[in-house]
């Protein structure tokens, strides 16, 4: 990865892609930003709109609408293209429609000579990330999805609100599918260094545990509620993409719950799922195994089975 010029390519200039682009610009995350869309005119308009805000930004970013050949020297290609999730539609319902879209994207990206990292946002993100890895032939450590990064942020926000604590001091994760089978391993949840479940014993266990269960359900159904209210979700995932991008370009070795291939961790093989990982400039440096309880391992296993079934229906 070149230190002198951080280059990101976004494929798909819909609301997710452009929320991400807007966030990249405001946080001055990269030096060169390329927008690619099947509707070239739209990509050109989006690039123009972003460029007009450069005078107000702390960035000298170069932004333009490009072609797949522009992926050749990119550090990261971020795929946000795909059909939108409809009201009442599960993420897995999107699978077959979005799989065809990806077939038309991955081949020209890899043909350009691209040798960076793939980051996937399109839903169902875990399966789409695995499809990206399969079609590209890339080492799985160089292909990741947003996974449960946004779900984890939602969890920490809600827990922080309930516990009257800064969400940044809440260390808890959502794991598994970014979807209906995701779960919270409460045995691993901490407020600073104190296990959150111990707080239940101090504050009325029945009431506390019920609230935690309610919070987990709120996290699981958040996207459906947002889609019902405004037809789509994009700001949160745009910020999640930006956080992952910063971890990559900054070689941070940060722990984020991205969608990564499991190769024996948690007893799971050859499946992409949202798990805590150490992220650096080379992608997923390693999956960080947590000490899950037998019940939590079972939940993760069921979630991974759901993801395998969805993928097997395509390949």
From TrEMBL:
Its EC number is 1.1.1.27. It is found in: Cytoplasm. Residues 7-145 form the Lactate/malate dehydrogenase N-terminal domain. It catalyses: (S)-lactate + NAD(+) = pyruvate + NADH + H(+). Its main location: cytoplasm. Allosterically activated by fructose 1,6-bisphosphate (FBP). It is an enzyme of class 1 (oxidoreductase). It comes from the Bacteria. GO terms for biological process: glycolytic process; lactate metabolic process. InterPro entries: L-lactate/malate_DH (IPR001557), L-lactate_DH (IPR011304), L-lactate_DH_AS (IPR018177), Lactate/malate_DH_C (IPR022383), Lactate/malate_DH_N (IPR001236), Lactate_DH/Glyco_Ohase_4_C (IPR015955), NAD(P)-bd_dom_sf (IPR036291). NCBIfam families: L-LDH-NAD, PRK00066.1. Catalyzes the conversion of lactate to pyruvate. Homotetramer. This is L-lactate dehydrogenase. It comes from [Clostridium] clostridioforme 90A6. The lineage of its organism: Bacteria, Bacillati, Bacillota, Clostridia, Lachnospirales.
């Amino acid at each position: 990865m070149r230190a002198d010029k951080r280059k990101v390519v976004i494929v798909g200039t819909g609301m997710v892609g452009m929320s991400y682009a807007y966030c990249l610009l405001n946080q001055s995350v990269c030096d060169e930003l390329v927008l690619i869309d099947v509707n070239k005119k739209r990509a050109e308009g989006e690039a123009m709109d972003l460029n007009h805000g450069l005078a107000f930004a702390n960035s000298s970013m170069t932004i333009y609408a490009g072609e797949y050949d522009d992926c050749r020297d990119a550090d990261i290609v971020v795929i946000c293209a795909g059909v939108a999730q409809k009201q009442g539609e599960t993420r897995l319902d999107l699978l077959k429609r979005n799989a065809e879209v990806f077939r038309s994207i991955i081949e020209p990206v890899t043909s350009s000579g691209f040798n960076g990292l793939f980051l996937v946002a399109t839903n169902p993100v875990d399966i789409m990330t695995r499809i990206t890895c399969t079609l590209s032939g890339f080492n799985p450590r160089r292909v990741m999805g947003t996974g449960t990064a946004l779900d984890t942020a939602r969890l920490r926000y809600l827990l922080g609100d309930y516990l009257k604590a800064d969400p940044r001091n809440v260390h808890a994760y959502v794991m598994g599918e970014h979807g209906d089978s995701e779960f919270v391993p409460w045995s691993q949840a901490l407020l600073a260094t104190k296990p959150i479940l111990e707080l239940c014993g101090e504050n009325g266990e029945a009431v506390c545990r019920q609230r935690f269960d309610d919070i987990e359900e709120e996290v699981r159904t958040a996207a459906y509620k947002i889609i019902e209210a405004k037809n789509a979700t994009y700001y949160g995932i745009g910020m999640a993409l930006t956080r992952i991008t910063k971890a990559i370009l900054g070689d941070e070795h940060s722990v984020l719950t991205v969608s990564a291939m499991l190769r024996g961790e948690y007893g799971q093989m050859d499946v992409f799922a949202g798990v805590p990982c150490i992220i650096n400039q080379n992608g997923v440096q390693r999956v960080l195994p947590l000490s899950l309880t037998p019940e939590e391992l079972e939940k993760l296993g069921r979630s991974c089975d759901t993801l395998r079934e969805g993928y097997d229906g395509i390949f």
